[in-house]
Write a structure and sequence with these properties.
By secondary structure, chain A is an alpha+beta fold. In chain A, strand 1 and strand 2 form a beta hairpin. In chain A, helix 2 packs parallel to helix 4. Chain A starts with about 25 loop residues before the first strand and ends with a helix. Chain B has a single domain, classed as Ribosomal Protein S5, domain 2 (2-Layer Sandwich). By secondary structure, chain B is of the alpha+beta class. Classes of the chains: A alpha+beta, B alpha+beta. At the A-B interface, helix 1, strand 9 and helix 4 of A face helix 2, strand 11, strand 12 and helix 5 of B. Strand 9 of chain A pairs antiparallel with strand 12 of chain B, so a sheet runs across the interface.
Chain lengths: ~250, ~260
């Protein structure tokens, strides 16, 4: 299943796309890109292109899903049919269902759900192009969309993966590395609270390597976190400039 | 932590755990007693039933022939599916598998797949055309907490129990011969779930504890002690230190479970 013949590291120890082992792909973030959503964000993480839109807090429908003592977060991670080499059926797959759930679990610790009883927040994530690590990029964008919607938060959640390629622990795997590599460890993190809110792993790692991968992923998260904050601030800086021009 | 009842329960469970004991008299790192019975369904190629506390799960393995995936023409196919049967809990409803069932199936699948437990390379009949397809169907019959561990244990037990029909190929056609051979296996992963209640880690959370715990982490280990699958769940978080502690706790629990398993 896993083709070990593909070399993921060259003689200089550089990866297929020329990155070093602990180097992130380029991350670009933009906040407030959807006019109709209460909050939104767009992320380009390597070749991943993902939009997240948040609606709410608003009245929860259907009503039987309302909770008298808290807000309900609903989350839908969905991949566009054209986002991957072979067309993906638009019907939600089991993988998408599971990812929707773990994304929701990764964002809930950041929200004060008890402050918005009976309401619901819908979070829609559309993967326009996928290139490995979409769940992490989705969380990074989705948390920004929630912040953009004006929800008070304990911290902005940021996510990044680490893994193992050709026997070495590496940061932020791209598609081929994820598929051919030995392991993938996606991590979501709240930097100010030292809180891991998503942790998954597939592949094979010793417990020591696993620990190393989690630590490396957290370092990646911290770097992306700075880009996140900058993106959120940029939205308001731009508005200010426009006002001055008028 | 929605209803008043669970808030009262939370308080009880918290106070008890603070003293290092749980409501069912276990210590924080105790695993509940479990019993596994193999070959309980004669019509299935393999089966196993587990009782973990009062959690009861039946796993059936069916083996059929089918087409391989285009990207792995020489490998058999493994699929894992889970049904939270409505008779297992008042909270389960009929209908197609929901998020909880899908997560359960996928976490169990990941442990089996990533450990390479089933030797799918030996399940190829004709490259790119015909392979054996192994269906693992998880049937939750009673929910008393920690479905992930119970389902993973029962699944691997059912796979060990599974027998493949003998066959030969005559004029491009498969002819089933008499007798069976065991399903080729390479590893026996064991999964352990750690729950977190008020910054205390507990092994093998029961249903009451699941209702009040803020998050869990499930880890599958191969026979040689490597981690092969991890899943964090629940609306809470783990700090890095807690994650490392949970890894150690899970690993030592897996080691002690292996001593009890008679495969």
């Amino acid at each position: 299943m896993k083709d070990k013949t593909i070399k993921l590291l060259n003689k200089k120890g550089l990866r297929l796309d020329g990155r070093k082992l602990d180097e992130l792909r380029s991350v670009k973030l933009e906040v407030g890109i959807l006019p109709n959503a209460d909050g939104s964000a767009y992320i380009e993480h390597g070749k991943n292109k993902i939009i997240a839109g948040a609606f709410g807090p608003r009245e929860m429908h259907p009503k039987h899903l309302q909770r008298a003592d808290r807000m309900v977060l609903r989350c839908r991670y969905h991949m566009a049919p054209f986002s991957v080499p072979e067309r993906k059926s638009p019907a939600p797959s089991r993988r998408e269902n599971e990812i929707s759930k773990v994304i929701r679990d990764s964002l809930l610790p950041s929200l004060f759900v008890e402050n918005y009883p009976r309401t619901g927040v819908d979070l829609y994530i559309e993967v326009l192009q996928a290139d490995g690590g979409t769940r992490c990029a989705s969380i990074t964008a989705a948390s920004l969309a929630l912040a953009d919607a004006g929800l008070p938060m304990r911290d902005i959640v940021v996510a990044c993966a680490a893994g193992k390629v050709n026997g070495k622990i590496a940061l932020d795997l791209m598609d081929t590395e994820d598929k051919v590599g030995d392991a993938d460890v996606p991590v979501a993190y709240m930097p100010n609270l030292n809180a891991i809110t998503l942790l998954q792993m597939d592949g094979k790692l010793s417990t020591k390597e696993f620990e190393e991968a989690v630590k490396m992923a957290i370092e990646g998260c911290k770097k992306i976190s700075n880009i996140q904050k900058e993106a959120l601030q940029t939205k308001y800086k731009v508005i200010k400039q426009e006002e001055v021009e008028e | 932590m929605s209803s008043l009842l669970t808030r009262v329960k939370l308080k009880q469970i918290e106070q008890s755990i603070e003293k290092g004991q749980r409501l069912d008299k276990r210590t924080l790192s105790d695993y509940r007693d479990f019993k596994i019975e193999q070959g309980v369904i004669e019509k299935a190629e393999g089966s196993a039933r587990i009782l973990l506390g009062k959690t009861e799960i039946l796993v059936g393995v069916k083996i059929e022939t089918g087409k391989p995936f285009p990207d792995t023409p020489d490998n058999g196919v493994l699929t894992v599916n889970a049904e939270l049967v409505p008779l297992a809990s008042a909270k389960f409803e009929p209908g197609p598998p929901g998020e909880q069932a899908i997560e359960l199936a996928r976490v169990v699948d990941r442990g089996i797949r990533e450990s390479g437990a089933v030797d799918t390379a030996k399940l190829c009949i004709e490259s790119g055309k015909k392979v054996f397809v192994v269906f693992v169907d998880i049937y939750v019959l009673n929910h008393d907490g920690n479905l992930i561990d119970a389902a993973a244990l029962a699944s691997i037990s059912a796979l060990i129990n599974a027998k493949m029909p003998n066959y030969e190929i005559v004029d491009d056609k498969i002819v089933i011969k008499q007798g069976y051979t065991p399903l080729p296996m390479k590893d026996h992963p064991v999964t352990v779930t750690i729950g977190k209640i008020n910054d205390k880690l507990i092994v093998d959370p029961g249903l009451d504890e699941e209702d009040v715990m803020d998050s869990r982490i499930s880890m599958a280990f191969t026979e040689d002690g490597n981690v092969c699958a991890v899943q964090k769940g629940g609306a809470g978080y783990f700090t890095l230190e807690q994650t490392i502690e949970a890894t150690k706790l899970a690993q030592s629990t897996v080691e002690s479970l292996r001593k009890k398993l008679k495969w």
